[in-house]
Amino acid sequence: MSQKLTDRPIAIAADHRGVVLKERLKAWLLAHGYSVKDCGTDSGAERVDAMDYALRSVAEIKAGRSDFAIGICGSGQMMAITANRFPFMRATLLHTAGEGVDARKHGDANMLVLGADVTDEAAAEHILETFLSTAALGERYAARRERLAKLDISEV
Questions:
Q1: Active-site position among 16, 32, 95, 106
Q2: Which of 96, 123, 125, 155 is most buried (CB neighbours < 10 A)?
Q3: 133-151 per-position pLDDT tens digit
Q4: In sequence order, what DSSP letters do the residues of 116-134 get, joined into one string?
Q5: 16 noted as active-site residue
Q6: What is the CATH class of 10-155?
Q7: So where are the chain's domains?
Q8: Which residues, including other chains, have CB under 8 Å from residue 109's CB and lie 6 or more apart?
Q9: Which residue positions in the chain have pLDDT lower than 70?
């Protein structure tokens, strides 16, 4: 793995369907020298709303305590939809590591979203490793990031 892109804790959250994968990815992060902020949930026994846990990880980025977040729910859709409601978030739902390269390089994605029902654990680890080791292209796409942060419904 190449140089770490952050020394801040990685915020990680899951709903009841994503708990098992969350725990696996937490272990991967810790084994690779990252610190982790676990934003819940801690049990798959009771149904919870993915939106609530997406908001917890978003709050970590907003407060500047984390540079990156990981969200996991059944399909990944609700985590991504919720996180992308905020102008400072660039959540990307990934199914392959290759998708992660472009999401990081061109979009400076700051939240990796995975669908626990559609992503096996080994693939999820590979996607995570690629996501966290791919730097954004910086100034080349800075204007794009600024434009995203300022988008308003009046523009459509």
A1: 106
A2: 125
A3: 999 987 778 888 788 778 7
A4: TTTS-HHHHHHHHHHHHH-
A5: no
A6: alpha beta
A7: 10-155
A8: 90, 91, 92, 100, 103, 131
A9: 1-2, 153-156
